Amino acid sequence: MINRHGLPSVGAVVFMMAGAWLISRPLSFALALPLLFLLWFYRDPERRPPEDPALWVSPADGKVVELEQVNDPVVGPSTKVGIFMSPLDVHVNRMPFEGEVFHLRYVPGRKWLAFEPKASENNERLYVGVRTPHGDAMLVQIAGLLARRIVAWAPVGSRFSRGDRYGMIKLGSKVDLYLPPSVEPLVKLGQRVKAGETPVGVVRR
Questions:
Q1: Euclidean distance between CA atoms 76 and 72, whole angstroms
Q2: What confidence tens digit (pLDDT) does each residue in 143-170 have?
Q3: 155 and 63 co-located in one domain
C-alpha cells in the first residue's frame, strides 16, 4: 500500500515514463528506478494493533533512543519515549491510543541529528496533544538532518482509534511520545518498534 501523500509524485513519474516511451524506450526504463524508489519510500503497510485494549502502541517505526520522566507544560508529568526513525524505516506515524486531539502547535527550528536529545527542544517540530480515557498524552514529530517535511492530518477536535494513521515525517527523523502517569512503559532503550503494532505501554490496573 502507498500512502496518499506519495500518489502525486508516483503519478508524475508514471506520466513521464509514458511520455518517454514514445521518444526513447531506454529513457523510459531508466525512469523505473525513481519510480521504484518512490514506491518504497511511500510504502504504508497495514498494521494490526494487539488485541489487549490496555496496550498503547508505538507511534513510529524505529529505535527507542530516549526513556525518561519529564514534566511537560501541556500534559504534565509523563514518561517520554523517544523513537528515532531512520531513512530506511516506514515514515507513517500512528496513534498510540484512542482519543481526541485537543492541542496542536508547530514550532520552527533547526535540523540537528534527530537522535540527539537536543533535537527535541531545538529542531523543527509539531506537537499533537491527545486526550485519552487514561489521561492526556503528547506526540511530537521532530524533523532531523535529512527530513524536510512534517505532515499531520490531526486537527483539533479530530478523533482517532488506536493504530490510526495521523501523519508522517518524510525521510524519517524522530517521534517523542509522552505517556500519562496511568500508563506503564514497556519498552527499553535500543529496542526496535513498529508503528501501530509494538506495545510501548500498558494501562496500570
A1: 5
A2: 866 545 788 899 999 999 999 999 998 7
A3: yes
